């Protein structure tokens, strides 16, 4: 079962993509922050700076901040979010 399930697209997330270089994904409930970072790095060939998670509506949501050299908007465009 994959760690990263789907990308989240809300107005708040789009603002975070543009201003804070962050992406948001629904992830596996049992996945650790390190596993989430490694999965995203291998999927998109990016460098992850930090991962913050929280659980809402029985789903684990990961907010992933990318390092400045990899713009989040490029990943969002690949995913069709922008």
Present the secondary structure layout.
Elements lengths: L3 E4 L3 H10 L1 E6 L5 H12 L3 E9 L2 E8 L5 H8 L3
Antiparallel strand pairs: 1-2, 2-4, 3-4
Question: What key phrases describe this protein's structure?
Answer:
single chain; 82 residues; alpha+beta; Alpha-Beta Plaits; 4-stranded antiparallel beta sheet; 3 helices; 4 strands; 37% helix
Describe the structure.
The protein has 82 residues and is an alpha+beta fold. It is 37% helix and 33% strand. The protein has one domain: 2-Layer Sandwich (Alpha-Beta Plaits). The longest helix has 12 residues, at 33-44. The chain contains 3 helices and 4 strands. The chain has helices spanning 11-20, 33-44, 72-79; strands spanning 4-7, 22-27, 48-56, 59-66. The chain has a 4-stranded antiparallel sheet with strand order 1-2-4-3.
CATH architecture grouping:
2-Layer Sandwich
- Identify the CATH homologous superfamily: RRM (RNA recognition motif) domain
Q: What global shape is seen?
A: globular
Counted up, domains total 1
Stretches where pLDDT falls below 50 for ≥5 residues? none
SS field, number of helical segments: 3
In percent, how much strand structure appears in the residues? 25-35%
Q: Briefly, what is this?
A:
This protein is of the alpha+beta class and 82 residues long. It has a single domain (4-79), classed as Alpha-Beta Plaits (2-Layer Sandwich), CATH 3.30.70.
